[in-house]
Amino acid sequence: MTKDQLPGEKDTMCEFCSVELDKVANAEALTGRNLGLLKRPEKRINANLPVKMDDGSVEVFPSFRIQYNDARGPMKGGIRFHPMVGEEEVEQLAFLMALKCAVVDIPYGGAKGGVVVDPSELSEAELERLSRKYIETYHEHIGPEKDIPAPDVNTNSKIMAWMMDEYERIEGEKSPGVITGKPPKIGGSEGREYATSLGGAFVLEEFVKHQDLDKEGLKVAIQGFGNVGSHLARFLHERGFDIVAVSDVAGGIHDPEGIDISRLFDLYEENGDLFEMDAEEITNEELLTMDVDVLIPAAIEDQITGENVEDVEADAILEMANGPITPEADDYLAEKGVPAIPDILANAGGVTVSYFEWVQNIANEYWDEEEVNRKLEEHMRDAFREVRKVKESEPGDTTWREAAYIKSVERVLEAEDYRGNVSE
Ligand code: NAD
Fold first, then answer.
1. Containing structural domain, residue 288
2. N or C: the chain end with fewer CB closer than 10 Å?
3. pLDDT one-digit tens code per residue, 73-112
4. CA distances (Å), 215 to each of 99, 207, 223, 243, 259, in order?
5. Residue 414: pLDDT band by 50, 70, 90 thresholds?
């Protein structure tokens, strides 16, 4: 039995969550708080989903929904379709969702879902039946005031539309607030598509101000030119940063004078790759170790690791992907004094506009793009300032990640306290 276990309880602890929480257990802002409550999820739900395939056979897809914590509001988190997704990964992501929603101060808890499937091997009809089956199976556990799913890896607005439709069919009433990330024509929000990137741009501007730097001409390298990376490149370019390198899964390009991002957008749309630009071709590994002012991993997890962290030359890192720096590399960067703005703050613009979508659905009132972006800006800049205050008030060298954890854990435990869930 571990020290956080209750007598008679089998070990239900989330190991990753426990290790992460222990890093901030001695923070001044958390004095007297018992973090044990956050070391395990509230509910782990799983089910095998039988789905009729086009040829008449039936395939069974394992699936999960982990509801980590709902002290601050309904559970919130995406559903991932991936052949390698596992319960442990979903649990970690659910924990991080709870912290992410708390750090930007939106009234949600944290959850995450997953289905073990390679969606590229399904026909559109099979994908629709699988998406509907997920909702049929989990509908009792979700709802606009209970748990609100959203897109994640390999799920998109079309899948969210099927899922919402299935939920409404079962409930027998309209309920657009049950899911976010829907197409705007059926209750999705303006600005959702690029919200993660715009939120990241606001956070970076705040960070640059805090460092007393002039953003004009700061050199930035971005790994990933998908939804997040490409829009972020555009927003930063518009704000005066020099994007000197970008990459996608096939490799990257480098121009020390700064890449013309609007031209790159046009060429990328035409050719589907980055290499039509007149720029030096580089590998992803080279991009990650470039001497730039800001390195932005915006592709996939585990990119800066124990293997390459010693070669990282960037002055600062903005984590737009989820978990792009491994804990080992994170420790090294902290030791070296390289600031890394953590994912739960940097990429929280997406869930913030998901929250706006839900508010609009519930009020049955829709905002224009300008209003959405103005509210997003307020939330993101406030969140950065709150984290900065923690960083500055904690003794010692508190990292940005630790400061973001401290702020979010403090908010979640405060809510638990009001609910009477914290022992005297
Ligand atoms: P995406 O699929 O649109 O784009 C991913 C990009 O990464 C592509 O350019 C792809 O070519 C590149 N890539 C894939 N594998 C790579 C590899 N091995 N090396 C280098 N590049 C590689 O995904 P996205 O929506 O842009 O999400 C990117 C990251 O941001 C993910 O970690 C995601 O979880 C995170 N995120 C996304 C959102 C959102 O709103 N889309 C919100 C929060 C966090």
1. 194-341
2. C
3. 999 999 999 999 999 999 999 999 999 999 999 999 999 9
4. 29, 10, 19, 12, 16
5. very high
